[in-house]
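Input chain follows. Return C-alpha cells only.
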Amino acid sequence: MNISVFDIFKIALGPSSSHTLGPMKAATEFLLCLKEKKILCSANKLQVELYGSLALTGKGHGTDKAILLGLLGEQANTVDLETIAARIADIYAQKKIALLSEHVIHFDDTNLRFHMDEVLPKHTNGMRFTAYDVNNTILLTQVYYSVGGGFIVTAENFDHPSVSEKKTPPYSFSSAKELLALCAQHKKTIAELMMANEETWKTEEEIEHDLLNIIQAMTACIQKGCRTKGILPGGLNVIRRAPILHEQLVQQGKPSAHHPHVMNWLNMFAMAVNEENAAGGRVVTAPTNGAAGIIPAILQYYIDFSPNSTTKGQIDFMLTAAAIAILYKLNASISGAEVGCQGEVGVACSMAAGALTAVLGGTLAQVENAAEIGMEHNLGLPCDPPKGLVQIPCIERNAMGAVKAMNATYLALAGD
C-alpha cells in the first residue's frame, strides 16, 4: 500500500475529477513521455480520442477543455481560472496549440474526437493519445483510463496499477480489520498511524504544511461559493443557492453549537463547494469532485461548531478521512462512472463520519462504526445526472451526504 493522503486530496478543477483532472493529467503525462524520449519537437500532429463516459458526457463535464489545458502543460492548482475560456477560444481560432507551452503544432476540432458508441475494454473512462511526425508516422500512442478521483492508469498497468513510485510505508493495511489491529498493536490513533506512513515520503512539518494548504483551499472554495451569485452554466438554469442561504444564516447570528439552524450551515457549506465545482471552479477531490462538498462541510462544522477544535484536530481529521478513503480505493471504487454515487458521495460520507468521530474523541471502534454507518445509507445510489452535468442531484446530494455523515458520527458516539 503506497497511497498517500495527498493522492486522495488533490486540488482540481470542476466539475468532475474523473472527467477533468484525470484527462488533464493524462494529456500532460503523454507529452512529458514524448519529451523524455526527446521526440516532442518531432511531433507534427496530435490525435486525442475519448471513449465511453468521457465521450458521452465529456462536453458537459469540460473534458475537452481539461485536455487542452493539459496539453498546454497547465496544472489544476495553478492555472488562472479567469483566462481559461479565452485561451481555449484562441486555440480553436488560431488552429494552433503550444504543447507544454513550448512546441507549436496545428490543432483543430478534428484532433479531438468523441467516440460515443465505443468503450475501451478496461474502464468506461478511456482515452487514447497518438502523436505523429511530419510523415504521418506514429511517434507514440498510449491509452489512459481515468479511474476516479483524478487517478489515471495506462492500459498496460491497469490490472497492476502503481499509484506512486514511493517506498512502502511501515504500516500497510488493506482492510479496516488490519487498520484497527495495527492501531491497537502500536498504540496509535488512525491519524497517528497515517502520519507515520506519510513520513515515509515527507517530513512531519511538510505534511502538516501541505495538509493545511489543502484545508485552506477547501475553506476558500466555501467562501467563494457563498459570495458568488447567479445561474450555473450548462443549460439547466440551476440557481446558486449557497449565497442566498448564507445571507439568511448570517442575519440569524454567528454559527455556534447552539445555533437553531446548525443543519442549514452544514447544507450551505456543502452546496457552496459543489456549486463552485459545477461552475468549473477550483475544488479539492474528496475523494472526487462529484463529492467534493462533504469533507469540507463536515470539517468546517468541526471548526465553527466544536468548542474544542484545534489545528491539530483539523490535520487529524484529514489523515483519518484519507485512511478510510484508501480502503475504498483498494477494495472497491471511488469512480461514479464505474459504481455510481455510492462510490463518490457514499465514500465521502463514510470518510467524513469516521474523521469527525475521531476528532470528537471517539474510540477506534466508534470511528470504524461511524464510517460503516456512513456508507450503509448510501448504498445503491446511481449516477445519472441530467445532461451529464454535475448539478442535479449532485449538489443537493452532497448536502444530504454531509447531514448523514454528522448523524452517523453521533449515532456511533452514542454506542460502544
